[in-house]
Amino acid sequence: MQTLVVELGDRSYPIYIGPGLLGRADLLRPHIPGRQVLVVSNETVAPLYLEQAEAMLAGLQHGAVILPDGERYKTLEVLNRVFDALLERRFGRNCTLIALGGGVIGDMAGFAAACYQRGVHFIQLPTTLLAQVDSSVGGKTGVNHPLGKNMIGAFYQPRCVLADTDTLNTLPDRELSAGLAEVIKYGLIRDLPFLEWLEAHLEDLLERQPAALVYAIEQSCRNKAEIVVADERESGLRALLNLGHTFGHAIETGMGYGLWLHGEAVAAGIRLAADLSARLGWLQPDELERVVGLLHRARLPVHSPAELDDEEFLKLMAVDKKVQDGRLRLVLLQPLGHGVITEQVEPVLLRATLDACRQPGGAIP
Question: Is 238 annotated in the active site?
Fold first, then answer.
């Protein structure tokens, strides 16, 4: 097991990474201050892991709420089921919510914890690669709106994160690849040695070799934790974590939540960002080829959907949390291994990238 700490003063918390952690009550219980616990999971994950999670809560007053599975259910309406469960059980301010699932469950349970009685305790038990390397760490929580992804939410840190790598054994191949998009992102924006390691060991990750998975998750979490500590509420540096996300969120919103997995949309967005960086002269042609080649090897899409024309794409990008005072901010690469945040992109170059990277064909990656 590897342990990292997100150093946020009196809100600091550990990230435990390794196999067999769903059986480690000794790791979980010190982070549960009270006796009331609600596990939030979904219809896919609960049959696999809820029993193990609840076994760690023996002797406590605990229950579970099972939500439908999928990005399209990440809404205020579905979130109300969590509040219903808390109120029906008369849970108080010292209760703890545990998110057992992927990024959608983590975001929703965290947002519920931030809102219920103006803030209760919260723990992450991520069961997807994407959640283990990204969404479970850093305290971003929220739900989607029909006009924009993650536009309703709060910064709210968990008390701990238990990333049990054994749960990745039941993860579909498509979702494993989707998680790799976020892993690759860290190498591209700030950790060139890690990017080079990924280029050498990508097949080990696709084959789910335990040591490779633990290393990739640890390095990803270490990179994210360092950024979160420096800029918890995304006033500057943390925006680098959005490489590919402004493009990707537009794809998710435009195509309908759930058709593209989040990591798939981010992968296409990373390719768009790399292409635009090359058009600005910030990436060399061989560096662009490295980015596209790595995404392709990870079995991720490297084109945006044909159904989104330039006007629709730009309209969707304008409804993004990273837009400030009407100006679109993009995370680009200058050079490989170093992300930059810029508002200085000529519209003609942006449109050229959208045109060059559009997939002729179907909507599903």
Answer: yes
